[in-house]
Amino acid sequence: MWGMIATWRMALEGVSEAAELLEKEGNASDAIVRAICAVEDFEYYKSVGYGGLPNEEMEVELDAGYMDGDTFDIGCVGAIKDYANPILIARALSKERVNNFLVGAGAEKYAHRHGFVRKNMLSERAKIHYHNRIVENRDQELKPYAGHDTVGMVCLDTQGHMTAATSTSGLFMKHAGRVGDSPVLGAGFYVDSQVGGASATGFGEDVMKGCVSYEIVRLMKEGMHPQKACDQAVQTFDRELRRRRGKAGDMSLIAMNQKGEWGVSTNIDNFSFVVAGEKQKPTVYLAKKDEAGNSYFEEADEAWMEEYMRVRTAPLAYK
User: Fold this and answer.
1) How far apart are CA 128 and CA 119, in angstroms?
2) Segment 110-130, tens digit of pLDDT
3) 202 in a structural domain
4) Is the pTM of this model over 0.90?
5) Is residue 64 in some structural domain?
6) Which domain holds residue 34?
7) Is residue 319 one of the residues assigned to a domain?
8) Which of 127, 150, 123, 151 is nearest to 50 (CA)?
9) What is the dihedral of CA 163, 164, 169, 171, to 10 degrees?
10) Is-contact 4 277, C-beta < 8 A?
11) Label partner for 287 (CA 20 to 30 A): which of 221, 262, 265, 297?
């Protein structure tokens, strides 16, 4: 039995590559890293890796996190610049006895010492997005863009080994040095091979307040199906944020247990995700909510898939 679940349509190609590895009894560590690298390397996805949108100083700062569900090893990087695949650096840090979470210049020095690939991560498309954003807000206070599409994944291999991982460029126009939930253990991701794993995408400043990924795994450990655990964790914390703060940021969570069963819950209207398994080819689903707020899912049709890529690869021009 093997399985994989990931946030957003952008994960499809990476999950498809990982599925080929898992079908041949590859391990969950290599599979999840391969899948996330595929997203990091594709310049048309403007919220992860190369092509990710820059901060307010037009610098691309990347965050990534990795966890091994067998050993609880973790590796995390935050606000790292000029390195091609932050997920590879995060996994390498998980092998260290100490210094597992490095940020900024410290993360870059570690990456340099260990021979990771340097790359200017600011693409021409990202420059155009940045310039146009400045023009659009010339007479207004510049605020971070609301988009924050982290790629997060949970993976189960045929040996029962589970991993979880994330990668993101974070908020567009964020302050230099800002780090969201994605590389933060328990918030952006968490996994225990004896139970299952979860990962988040959304507004990091709010997701961190609830340690939502850990909460989902905790509920699964109590015996909940991943779907019920996701709905309970997301709905409960969404209500709590609204009660205490008057509003709640975007939150979408994915989960998979050690049996390969999965669940998804969201408080937004347009969340897509990818699932693959021993009996299921990599498939994109759209998350919906019924009147009670419970989640249900529809497979994305061909028209939706074509429009998704058309929008992301459309030519850009300076305003």
Assistant:
1) 19
2) 999 999 999 999 999 999 999
3) yes
4) yes
5) yes
6) 3-313
7) no
8) 123
9) -170
10) yes
11) 221
**Which CATH number fits the domain that encloses residue 105?**
3.60.20.30
Distances (CA, A) of 133 to 38, 52, 142, 177: 27, 14, 9, 20
28-56: burial string, b at 16+ Cβ within 10 Å, e else: bbbbbbbbbbbbbbbbebbbbbbbbbbbb
Count of domains observed in the chain: 1
Give the sheet arrangement for strand 262-266, strand by strand. Answer: 189-192, 196-202, 251-257, 262-266
Tell me which residue has tokens 């961190």.
208
Task: Give the whole-angstrom CA distance, residue 313 versus residue 65.
Answer: 27
Distance of CA 87 to the CA centre of its chain: 11
Catalytic residues: 150
Asked if residues 43 and 169 have their Cβ atoms less than 8 Å apart, the reply is no
**39-89 pLDDT, tens digit each:** 999 999 999 999 999 999 999 999 999 999 999 999 999 999 999 999 999
State how far the Cα of 221 lies from the Cα of 219, in Å rounded to an integer: 5
End-to-end alpha carbon distance in the chain = 51
Angle, vertex CA 210, rays to CA 239 and CA 208, nearest 5? 125
Please give the Cα distance from 86 to 30 (Å, whole number).
Answer: 15
Determine contact, residues 15/277, Cβ cutoff 8 Å: no
Give domain status of residue 128, yes or no.
yes
